[in-house]
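Example 3.2
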Amino acid sequence: MNEVHLRRAIELAAEAREGGNPPFGSLLVGPDGAVLAEERNSSLSDNDITAHPELKLARWAAQNLDADTAAGTTMYTSCEPCGMCGGALARSGIGRVVFALASRQLNGLKSGPGFTDVPTDGPYLYEEAKVPVEGYYP
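Structure, written as tokens:
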């Protein structure tokens, strides 16, 4: 764990908030310890619910790093990634994530109810749904 990088993530979160956005920030550090990229939440200013810093960095890593380099990176982030970002991080090949504030701690700081889960229903039509998927994944 590198406190310098975590503190920078917290600074980025403060900058996001100062810019009128939710207070979240992240940076991606390469295998050699160099900062590769930084991002702030811009979901309100960009009018884009996916503009979380973790997701933006996952996308950047997938587009700009080869698999071996990505696997050696560490993302430092001000808060534990949400489910959306966690899925993107898993697919990006980023090596690991270090966070300052856990989701349960964040929820304890909120005065309202927060986000609710969207009801889901399924699975259905397995035999039909598996046809386009079979053989796709090695």
